[in-house]
Amino acid sequence: MAQPRALIVDDEPDLCELLAITLGRMGLATTVAATLHAARAALAASSFDLCLTDMRLPDGSGLDLVQLIQQRYAALPVAVITAHGSMEAAIQALKAGAFDFVNKPVDLHNLRKLVAQAVTLAGPAPLGAVHAPLIGRSPHMERLHETITKLSRSQAPVHISGESGTGKELVARLIHAQSPRASQPFVPVNCGAIAPDLIESELFGHIRGSFTGAIGDKMGLFEAADGGSLFLDEVAELPLALQVKLLRAVQEKRIRRVGAAHEQPIDCRILSATHKDLASMVGAGVFRQDLYYRINVIEVKVSPLRERSEDIAPLTEYFLTRIGQAAGAAAPPLSLPARAALQAYRFPGNVRELENILERACALCDTGTIEVADLLLPSLPVAAGPPAGELQPWLDELERQRILEALGQTRWNKTRAAKLLGISFRALRYRLERLGLS
Prior knowledge:
By secondary structure, this protein is α/β, with parallel strands linked by helices. It has helices spanning 13-25, 36-45, 62-72, 87-96, 108-120, 139-151, 168-177, 199-204, 221-224, 240-252, 278-283, 289-295, 312-327, 336-344, 350-364, 372-375, 391-409, 414-421, 425-434; strands at 5-9, 29-33, 50-54, 56-57, 60-61, 78-82, 100-103, 158-161, 186-190, 229-233, 254-255, 264-265, 269-274, 298-301.
């Protein structure tokens, strides 16, 4: 196997020598460039497995080099070396596509970890353990898959936004599973499910005697995720006092156990999610702006199911297969009317609601085929009035819901449904075709 090669871009000879020695002991061959111009020439002449660049170069910025590598050598992981405390520069680099960053003075222990992770990106993508695949064939899902693959090659904090039930934790698990950290822990924590007086201890750990009931030392979730990824679900629920400590952990990569005298280094990638609008919470003063910018270096939005109806059919097949496997027998199929009803439903609870509806329908079905009545789709109230300029879509939705309700009551008997609605069979058939329910 060819020896991995690293490009070091810095105009400080002593630092370049230190980096070359450290990487050489790790089995990497190194090439040194003192300027942006020399780095461009080296990249054009040879292939590399890693690039380390200072942010300040005599003839330009390391950010320019990051952007060049993203454009022309997208498979090459690049890490930036920043002055201590220059977090804004580091965030700029991460947004531009940098794999990670290192603060000066360089901590060799952290550097070795970074290099080991970066070099693994040159090999085949790791296969981590993911409980479920990301199902869907809509354009949104295709873009989401591409985004996950790209983010897996970075160490930047990622914030995943979307409504409840859209699969935000699954996205986080996939980012972790395809990353160099895949063999290390993925630690999920629901910030809204932990009592406020316990959450600091849960995240950072504590030492014996630090508070009443602390009868021994305890490792926190940050330490449990060391080397891997920490997923902070419903991060918007964190109290303001704890947001300050989380900010330091994200920014300085150091934590302090409750009651401890000293901090300790920590190496975990921060992935977060919430169904709330963090930007609005910042404006309202209930979420710290500086923490928002630190955890939201890259944002991934997961669309609600109603905006990607093409995914309902493949998701339905996936869940029915899984339900059947769990039961030890094939799940009953859906009738065509039942499929049409699911396709027309708005799914306020998103993918999670679809799964629950199908599990309930399989349990209730006693005819060998799941019918509309087995789905027990709720009749959701329609808004009191249409938005300005959107009368027809509002009327169509009102009509669709009423027709589906009537069809559900008559087990999709169109003749009886038309009578229940007070219209002719022909009129019902026309409306079914117009609304895409036929």
